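Journal club prep — side note

Before the paper discussion, L.F. wants everyone to see what a predicted structure for a comparable chain looks like in token form. Sequence:
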Amino acid sequence: MSAGPQIPGAVRARQAHRVRPRRLVRPGKPARSLEVRRPGDRPRFAGVCGLAGVFGAGPAARLRGPGRAAGVPGRAPGGARPQARRSAPRARTEAGRAAHSLESLASAVERLGVLISAGLTPYSAWRHLLARSEPLLSPKNERQLLDDLGEGLPPTAALLAEAGRHPAGLAEGWRRLAAAWALAGESGAALSPSLHALAEALRSRAEIHHDLDVASAGPRSTLRLIAALPLLGVACGEALGFPVAATLVGTTPGRVLLAVGVALLLIAVFWARRILRAASRYAAPEDVLLDLTAIGLAGGGPPGGAREQAESWAEQCGLSLPLGGRRRLTEILELSEGAGVPAGLLLGSESIVARRLERTDLRRRAERAGVRLMLPLGLAALPSYICLGVFPLVLSLLNSTGLIGPAP
């Protein structure tokens, strides 16, 4: 008589019927346990899975790409791996595109300072930078810039020529780079620290554009609502079965309502765009003269001479020097002279304060724009919705009851 526990016959039969898991191996994949089947089993939910495969193959192939549609993640049907693609910016607004472009330029300027500090010439530094970093310029602009530097054109002139091939927001960054490059060469300041300081200024400028893009997202959505509200009224009337469009086009009162509604809609859209444009407009930055003067002082020159050099190169490079920046610079130089302390650190901190105040002012204007957009919404967009959506619906009801002439 055995000392071990007694196993019932039914349990013993089920244990004997079990089989070891089979390891299915796919080509190019490590072996792993996929499923356990017993002899004679049929796959469950085969019909549902087949229908899912038939109806889901097309959308899955479009969403996942050719590699995923073939059943192997990230691989094309022929077995070759797809090339890595760089993510493109999804910014749709002018401020968003300017923020992305300035951020890329700031990163390029910072890397350029490292390459030049290692002893590379400007041409070699730009060539390595454009070949191995994220796309900064279009292929045509890259060739033009490298050709200008390779032909012996001064870097300042080449950078100014490159600035002329970009929109205003990004062209300002290239002009600041040209002015800083020229001023560092004339004053004897080290170019690498000057480029690092300029990279911080450009990155702060990119943050200003990004804040403007985020702050104006709500007003832009309100503008889209203003433009779509009257059209939505017409669509709702047609969906309910009323001949709103026929009433607007085929009857005299409908044509009058159509003309008035379209005019009010255009007024609302143009009014709202003007409000947004006024909120997005910003004055010339006040930190340009402060940063350029700090570069001139880093070369060992006197404060007055550094200021004259900064103003001269800013004007030659097409940079605007607002009155507020000149006033800040005068106060900092007077404070430095009276206290007997170097003005370089004071100029750096004052530039940070100027950029911070500019960001605050842009946010405030964007918030005000969101409130002011209620005026075109209430005075023009809603009356347009009534003229195009409500009154035609009433006219179509009157047509159906025969109180007025039927619409054709």
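L.F.'s comment for the group: The longest strand covers residues 32-35. Keep this in mind when we get to the figures.
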